[in-house]
Amino acid sequence: MKEPPWKVGELARNTGMSVRALHHYDEIGLLRPSLRTAAGHRLYGRPDIERLQQIHSLRLMGISLEETKRLLDGAAASPRQVIDMHLARLHEQMAMQKQLVRRLKALADHLDTAKPLSLEELCKTIEEMMRVEKYFTPEQLDVMEQRRISVGEERMRTVRDDWNEIIPKVRAAMENGADPTSPEVLALARRWKVLVEEFTGGDPAIANAVKTMYNDDGPALQEKLGNVPTKEMFAYICKSIEALKS
Amino acid sequence: MKEPPWKVGELARNTGMSVRALHHYDEIGLLRPSLRTAAGHRLYGRPDIERLQQIHSLRLMGISLEETKRLLDGAAASPRQVIDMHLARLHEQMAMQKQLVRRLKALADHLDTAKPLSLEELCKTIEEMMRVEKYFTPEQLDVMEQRRISVGEERMRTVRDDWNEIIPKVRAAMENGADPTSPEVLALARRWKVLVEEFTGGDPAIANAVKTMYNDDGPALQEKLGNVPTKEMFAYICKSIEALKS
DNA sequence: TCTAAACCCTACCGTAACGTGAGGTGCAAG
DNA sequence: CTTGCACCTCACGTTACGGTAGGGTTTAGA
Question: Which residues constitute the domain of residue B220?
Answer without folding.
Answer: 137-245
